[in-house]
Write a structure and sequence with these properties.
The structure is a single chain. The chain has four helices and six strands. The protein has 129 residues and is α/β, with parallel strands linked by helices. The chain has a single domain, classed as Trna Endonuclease, Chain: A, domain 1. Helix 1 runs parallel beside helix 4 and helix 2 packs across helix 3. It starts with a helix and ends with a helix.
Length: 129
Amino acid sequence: MKRLAREFESKGYQVQTRENNLPSGAGRDGAIYRPDIIVRNSDGQIAWLVEVETSEGGKAVVGAAVLADICMRKMNVTNRPKLLFVFYRPESNLRLARKRLQEIKERVSAVELMAPLSEKDALEQIANT
């Protein structure tokens, strides 16, 4: 997570890796969704939500995508933050995660589902933003 956070910070984003309770203002008990990293642009709006995955790419990505979508709707965001899943396990997890996200893509409208990536590819994509 530290490498991802540093890469976002090098691009001028504000990065939050603790107390990521969403919707905004929710306490630990009231949070619906807690992403690993929240990335905000210069005006404080959420630009990216990042999930760092070390397990299988099935239910975990679908659940996180749905919860992120619910929270962004509840917060009435005016932009669509990008939701990025970063995997540290074999390629098979990436394929499974891509398949699962593709199946729900039409139902998620408040976040932009990014293709799940390996850490190396995620760092490269962030560097190119």
